[in-house]
Amino acid sequence: MQADNANGPVLTAVDLSRVFGSGDTAVTALSGISLTVQQGDFLAVTGRSGSGKTTLLNLLSGLDSPTTGTVHFHGDDLENLRESDLVEMRRHKIGFVFQSFGLMPLLSAQENVELPLHIGGASWRERRQKATEALRAVGLGTRARHRPFELSGGEQQRVSIARALVTEPEVVFADEPTGELDTATARSIAETLGEVAASRRATVIVATHDLDLAATAQRRLDLVDGMIVPQG
Length: 232
What we know:
The protein contains seven helices and ten strands. It is of the alpha/beta class. Helix 3 packs parallel to helix 5.
């Protein structure tokens, strides 16, 4: 991958479409999506279930490939990158937060957060230091030794956010991060994501149908049937 361009956008998508299947069974999940995301942006992608939110996040993060159109990460066309480059990008430059938390049940909060660093070959000392800092950043410094079943839903999602942050990524993708949480906890998670974007200069892109969460973002992109619609 080429060197990062600090002055250019982090992500650029041009005329993205994604079609699943073929012939009479073809389903168009996204159509004609273009957008630019700058460093430090907090972008909310909203829409009903089936509107294409998750598909868009998968394309922007390189987890899936568009049928047509391009995605550039710091000027690099993701379609032109080798699989090893994409793996490197996901390990070190991108973090993921999912609706279902995705924590390992037999590991403590600390060990769950350390996992991406362990996979990346970091030393024990580095893993412990960075995981401790990430847990403190989401307000869970005193819960590091607890396993997921000993934590509330909101606390588990904070562990998930800490795990996404521990590699110090440039972009954090969050797919319905408040979908399984009550209103008050969801609002707290939304505030945490906003603080991440502000304090760490990380770009945060959230797919959500939670309008309270969307309201905390700097920008909002509304999808209907796989297409961007004007707000209001």
